[in-house]
Amino acid sequence: MVLFTWKAGEFRDRCQHKRGAGDENIEVEDGKDMKIKKGLFIILGCLCLTLGTVGVFIPILPTTPFYLLTVFFFANSSERLHSWFLGTKVYEKHFASFVRGKGMLVKTKVSIMVTVTLLMGFGFFMMFRKEIWVPCVILAIVWMAHVYCFIFRIKTIPAKNEEEGA
């Protein structure tokens, strides 16, 4: 089945008027398939929104990928849901500047790094205490990669510039 960005009826009308040789195998999503796809995307978007929001409070869950998936699913299911999510305070506070390619505020980066470091440190301490070495090494590598990405890969926006751009 071929998926198109146009509504099924619009594409079907275009195919009927512009059919040529070899076009008899073109398949168009009908209304029922579109409703199933939109419903599935809404459910997946809500699931990712929930997991991302839980990740705000429990930083072991990655918030950013879930919120980016939420944007994708809502954008492909409903313009209203997509617009609503882009207007939320959580999106504006934590991800709007990052998605626009500007980076993150120092305050946001520090709060994420401190929270993740404390939680990973607690897990590391508990495993180290029980002499479970392999997970300790894996957790240390993940933590170092996290710190490296936040310091060197994600741009830092001075707070003054962010307030001027808003």
Largest sheet: 2 strands, parallel
Per DSSP E runs of 2 or more residues, the count of β-strands stands at 2
Helix content: over 70%
Cα distance, first to last residue? 44 Å
Low-pLDDT stretches are 1-28, 162-166
What is the quaternary state of this protein?
Answer: single chain
Average pLDDT metric: 75
Q: What is the gyration radius calculated from CA atoms?
A: 22 Å
Order of helix and strand elements from N to C terminus? HHHHHHEHHEH
Task: Record the strand order, biggest sheet.
Answer: 1-2
SSE layout:
Blueprint: H1 8-17, H2 31-57, H3 63-77, H4 79-86, H5 89-94, H6 96-99, E1 104-105, H7 106-129, H8 133-153, E2 156-157, H9 159-165
Parallel strand pairs: 1-2
Could you explain the architecture of this structure?
It is built from nine helices and two strands; from the N terminus they run H-H-H-H-H-H-E-H-H-E-H. The N terminus and C terminus are likely disordered. The protein is mostly helical and 166 residues long. The two termini are 44 Å apart. Strands 1-2 form a two-stranded parallel ribbon. Helix 3 runs antiparallel to helix 4 and helix 7 runs antiparallel to helix 8.
